[in-house]
Amino acid sequence: MTLSSAPGKVYLLGEHAVVYGEPTVLCAIEQRARVGVQRRDDGKLRVNAEDLSLDGFTVEYDGTADEGPDIDVSESLLDAAMGYVDGAIEQVRDVTGNDEVGFDVTIESDIPLGAGLGSSAAVVVAAIDAATRELGVTLETDELAERAYRTEYQVQNGQASRADTFCSATGGAVRVEGDDCRSLAAPDLPIVIGFDGGAGDTGQLVAGVRSLRDEYEFAADTIAAIGDVVRNGEAALADGDLEELGRLMNFNHGLLSALGVSSRSLDTMVWAARDAGAYGAKLIGAGGGGCIAALDPTPETETALSFTPGCEDAFRAELADSGVKRLE
Ligand SMILES: Nc1ncnc2c1ncn2[C@@H]1O[C@H](COP(=O)(O)OP(=O)(O)OP(=O)(O)O)[C@@H](O)[C@H]1O
Ligand SMILES: C[C@@](O)(CCO)CC(=O)[O-]
Ligand SMILES: [Mg+2]
């Protein structure tokens, strides 16, 4: 068996707009997905993902790719649930030139699904890394990030940025603009996360933003404005100016909200954090439900969130210096 782990991430600024070439800044966090892979000689794929739950059903996918798992859910839901793992294995077959190879894949993850913390990227990065190593091939980090990006691009119907997968593969803080991906000197930021227990489907949310952008010029302008917020944020980060960074996070949340990707509970948590004295707060990742991030060096925001109706979990994010980890 070969085992790799990869971290989730938090966007400081710039999700969604990054899909259209605007810059973004995000950092890896110490919530990880671990993927164990064992080669099979019969060419079949068997996935055991006990944490996989989506829209009210839980599935232990323990079938084979050709037979499919024995559960009573629609094929489209199942595709949504399994797409990332299937896509990762397709990349492994492609990059190793081993079209026929099968695997037993076991996934265990600390990262809630569809909550904006990059569970999909972490699963894909760890799966590609473990499965290629199982075949005796160790990918350079850039190639690993590229292959993981192609998987997200495919599952999200041709609408994905390189941000989540690059960040998960390399760890630390990163800046992504189009295909320019680079590491940043990791600032030690006091990030607090609030989680409403919900989820959003990244592919669908990205598609919703795209149709607004196609329909309204002011939606395209909103996306461009997020890019401006990020460029200002980079200057604030370089100066270590948390107050300014917080203000920009607030602005970014408003713009994401205008693009239709916030929700009542995300807004409630954002306001609870601001009322508690956070420098700023915003939804993170694709939105629709899931997590917000706030900047607060004091314990106030975490405490306030833990008493906020609709907030299921509040915790301080520990930044992850390393990306993919090769465990066995
Ligand atoms: N533990 C897991 N086991 C198997 N598949 C997982 C696991 N965690 C995530 N996934 C896959 O990732 C999908 C969720 O990805 P999605 O991009 O919608 O959300 P996210 O990555 O958590 O949030 P965001 O993209 O906003 O950061 C799940 O439907 C599933 O296909
Ligand atoms: C919404 C989005 O910007 C981030 C999802 O974590 C989509 C992407 O970058 O692929
Ligand atoms: Mg994702």
Could you please describe the fold and organization of this structure?
With 328 residues, the chain is α+β, with helices and mostly antiparallel strands. The protein is built from nine helices and 13 strands. The protein has two domains: 2-185, Ribosomal Protein S5, domain 2 (2-Layer Sandwich); 191-316, GHMP kinase, C-terminal domain (Alpha-Beta Plaits), CATH 3.30.70.890. The chain has helices spanning 75-96, 119-134, 141-155, 163-170, 202-215, 217-239, 242-258, 264-275, 300-306; strands at residues 2-13, 24-40, 45-49, 53-54, 57-58, 102-109, 173-177, 180-184, 191-195, 280-283, 291-295, 313-316, 325-326. The strands form three sheets. Strands 1, 2, 3, 6, 7, 8 and 13 form a seven-stranded mixed β-sheet that branches. The chain has a four-stranded antiparallel β-sheet with strand order 10-11-9-12. It is globular and about 55 Å long. Adenosine-5'-triphosphate (ATP) binds next to helix 1, strand 6 and helix 2.
What gross morphology would you assign? Answer: globular
- For the record, what CATH class of the largest domain applies? Alpha Beta
Name the CATH architecture of the largest domain: 2-Layer Sandwich
Strand count, sense and barrel status of the largest sheet are: 7 strands, mixed
**Percent of residues in helical segments?**
40-55%
**Integer-rounded radius of gyration:** 19 Å
Looking at how many chains there are and whether they match, the oligomeric state comes to single chain
Percent of sequence in beta strands: 15-25%
N-to-C span: 7 Å
CATH topology of the largest domain, which one? Ribosomal Protein S5, domain 2
Succession of helices and strands: EEEEEHEHHHEEEHHHHEEHEE
Number of strands: 13
What is the helix tally?
Answer: 9
